Hints:
CATH class of the largest domain: Alpha Beta
Order of helices and strands: HHEHEHEHHEHEHEEEHEHHHHHH
Oligomer: single chain
CATH architecture of the largest domain: 3-Layer(aba) Sandwich
Radius of gyration: 24 Å
Structural class: alpha/beta
CATH superfamily of the largest domain: P-loop containing nucleotide triphosphate hydrolases
Amino acid sequence: MFESLEDLETRLSATGYFIDPVMIQVVYLAAKLQVPLILEGPPGSGKTQLATSVAKAAKTNMVRMQCYKGITDKQAIGEFDESLQRLFMEFSKEQGLSWQEVVKTLKGRDFFRPGPLMRALECERPCVLLIDELDKVPQDTEALLLEPLAERQLSIPEFGTVNATSIPFTVITSNEERPLSDAIRRRCLYIRVEHPTPDREAEIIASRTPDATGKFHNQVAGIALAFRNYSLEKPPSVSEMIIFANALQLLGIDRVTPELRDVLLPFLAKTEKDRRHLLLREGFSSLLHDGARYAHQMGLEEGVEA
């Protein structure tokens, strides 16, 4: 996927995704060694975005398996297309095919509609396979992943083994709703993903709002840190802060003040409980004060006016 460590870093940066040098090396090694990655950490810290950015950087497609309670092998691996099978049975009557020929054909690959795991293995060139929020499913469901991750194949009882055409770059994310199994962990490299530091987030914001000033970027990053340090049910994610920064630019705002609270709350408060907290007399104002203090510290460290 990537010719060198420097190639990966350059391409990832071009997508607007910035990570620390150690993480860059682990991602590069995972790609080279063809070992899956587990990214574990709080919601909104950029785990899913890493997979998306790697796909963009490698100029390949991303296949996503979104995990949820109740997912089965049919959703993950695939299932037979019953409507197509019925059409073939009607056709077989007209053609006078024997019952043995009909049954053999109906259970063939042509009538199987692949799920994300099979689609990823059948890609002509390596894709990015994102297994998102694996912690949402029970541990026994993880068994569906062991064969494709370890053996690079899928066993379909009806028509045999599907071997990988290419080996995907696999990213597994977890928000830690439950521990992942040892069987999965042993087959992967593990990275702990936290929200970015203010300096890193300012860099991310700058890549998405290049016309704004460094002072503006620091301000948004400072507000992000202040809100995440507050006892919110849903602290803002990196992607939400990017939208927030773009909204400020559209409104022509280069400095957030308490008077802007009501129009900015939809960007920063995503539950009624959080909204009520921020509507308190000093709630929003105190967070802006903290955010300004963080931004000022960042400006001093950079040697520019904050």
